[in-house]
Amino acid sequence: MKTDALIIFTRNPELGKVKTRLAKTIGDEKALIVYNDLLLHTKNETHAIKCDKFVFYDSVIVKEDIWSQDFYQKKRQSTGDLGQRMQDAFASLFEMGYQNCIIIGSDLFDLKATLIETAFKELKDHDVVIGRAEDGGYYLLGLKKNNTLIFQNKDWGTSTVFEATVRDLATLKVCLLDTLNDIDTFDDLKRSSYDWAKLNPVLVSK
């Protein structure tokens, strides 16, 4: 029986197309370095988790990259806004027979395997598990069945997303995880565990 599945949303790491808000401070090349480090961190923290794992690429599926096909199945995100793409990803796995599905992004150096494992455990006794990001979004969402409402009418990328989502979950049993810092800006990067000084000593004084 298929039970637990982890969805990992990623962007293809292309110069000028990732971490654009961060790039405004440190430039496209350094932003790409940070994003590749984020991808590596996400891979390192997820590869040993005992569940089926799916990497959803935003544009092109890459066969030979850090996501070994021995541990990760590979899919492409659908079209539409972030909500539509997440909804479609959940729907595809529930249709495959999975009972507990969790989605994460690839934006957190604070993300740990133990947190994802805790989320799967909590999902057994809750309808929904959600982890708030410091910027007002969320970094993890776990569902037992698809819920189209929570993916609609959201201002994605703004500080309103988490609160608006929680309002939509008012009738369900929800587990809230720790609030974590996802990396969108240079201030986010400075507050993280990343050794950001290695990018450029000049940035240390900013």
Automatic annotation (TrEMBL):
It holds the Pfam family DUF2064. InterPro entries: Nucleotide-diphossugar_trans, Trfase_1_rSAM/seldom-assoc. This is Glycosyltransferase. It comes from Flavobacterium xanthum.
